[in-house]
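Form 7-S
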Amino acid sequence: MTDAAATKPSSPKRDQLLDTAWRLFYRDGYHAVGIDTILAEAGVAKMTLYNHFASKDELIAAVLEKRHQEFVGALNAALEKSGKTGAKRLLAVFDWLEEWMTSPGFNGCTFIRAVAEYPRAEERPHVVAAEHKQWVIDYLAELARAASLKDPASLGRQLALVMEGAIVTAHTFGAKRVGRLARESAQRLIGAS
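Output:
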């Protein structure tokens, strides 16, 4: 994944813009939030925004890249904390997923929303979101490979589909039982491998 968020030098104002933009985008959507709203909420001047980001799309891409890094960190920390190994480590991903989907403020997946609002594959927010989703598939496949499961690449794709379906279902209907059902589905797929 390209990582402009990590390669650009950090500054308090840049971080404030990224954090404010993400909060507003996550709550209201990417197209619904204007630059002026972000600037007013962040308490920074327009010049500051454009010193750090060439356009709103670049700001969105940087927000997504930062969220990806936070996602990776949170998932890795949860798996390490679980102490699980082998196939149980894959199931720990679904325990973490359920915890996230039932947390206060859950409003779906910011990457799914980016693809929905930027449907053309060449649009920068779409590219970053697709890279994140591919990372998830590859990560799940690597966990399956480490557990010596059969056809880990295919299993990674299947488990990612279960995750995506769970996230969308939880966002649409509420998270009650969705995480548990996703984990049960994952357990069946893993058991068949």
